[in-house]
Amino acid sequence: MANAAILVIGNEILSGRTQDSNVAFLGKELAERGITLGEVRIVRDDQTAIVAALDALRASYTYVFTSGGIGPTHDDITSAAVAKAFGVALERDPEAVRRLQSRYGQGELNAARLKMAEIPEGAALIDNPISQAPGFRMGNVFVMAGVPSILRAMFEGIRGTLAEGPPQMSRSLTLSAREGDLAEGLTRIQDRHPQVEVGSYPSFAEGRSLVTIVARGIDAGMLDSVMVQTRALATELGAAIAEG
User: Fold this and answer.
1) Can you tell me the distance from the alpha carbon of 63 to that of 4, in angstroms, rounded to the nearest whole number?
2) Which residues span the domain enclosing 9?
């Protein structure tokens, strides 16, 4: 199965000023194509940090998706960092310039905006139907905007180029129980189903301790089996089923 990593770039994410929503979107979309999301990293607008993260991730995963840092301002350094990571020049791409010209009026395509046409040598452009400033693909790295609406539009253009496998599915069950009481039994269930990811997520509501058990995998029969055994565990422990 193909796998992937996401590299989120931007000081504003690490400071908490901006809340990331791109990871949730990409994780869901990749799962539906049968691509396992194995890792997410967040780094500052720092070229050394971006290059180090790219070098590590692109060597370990089928695909790497980056978000952020391809705008017109001084701190938008992702394109330059990708060029450095791949050891190529950063060039003004004529097609990227043409697309920007279609967006901006006479005299509006200034030096700052032309920065968005600087693309690593040999990269393939990714369409941006919203603001025209393109992303790009370099090797197994897809470089996209941080603005959620633009990233989603860009992803629509590359979706069909990605590998496709059995979609990942999930089943869930919420129990009125304490997580520690379920731990031993859940370990046994996980051991019997190594191809399924079994997770437990505690919460509290109306004075009750709740635990939601989530099973993820590509085999519907195995997922159903995990849920049957989880229900049996709940009965064994006298834990009421709250939902699912």
Assistant:
1) 5
2) 3-161
Out of 122, 141, 161, pick the residue that ends a domain: 161
Regarding whether 141 and 229 lie in a shared domain, the answer is: no
Q: Cβ-count burial of 9 within 10 angstroms (0-12 exposed, 13-18 middle, 19+ buried)?
A: buried
- Shared domain for 57 and 176, answered yes or no, is no
- What is the full per-residue pLDDT of the chain (244 aa) written as tens digits? 899 999 999 999 999 999 999 999 999 999 999 999 999 999 999 999 999 999 999 999 999 999 999 999 999 999 999 999 999 999 999 999 999 999 998 889 999 999 999 999 999 999 999 999 999 999 999 999 999 999 999 999 999 999 999 998 999 999 999 999 999 999 999 999 999 999 999 999 888 999 999 999 999 999 999 999 999 999 999 999 987 7
pTM for this entry: 0.87
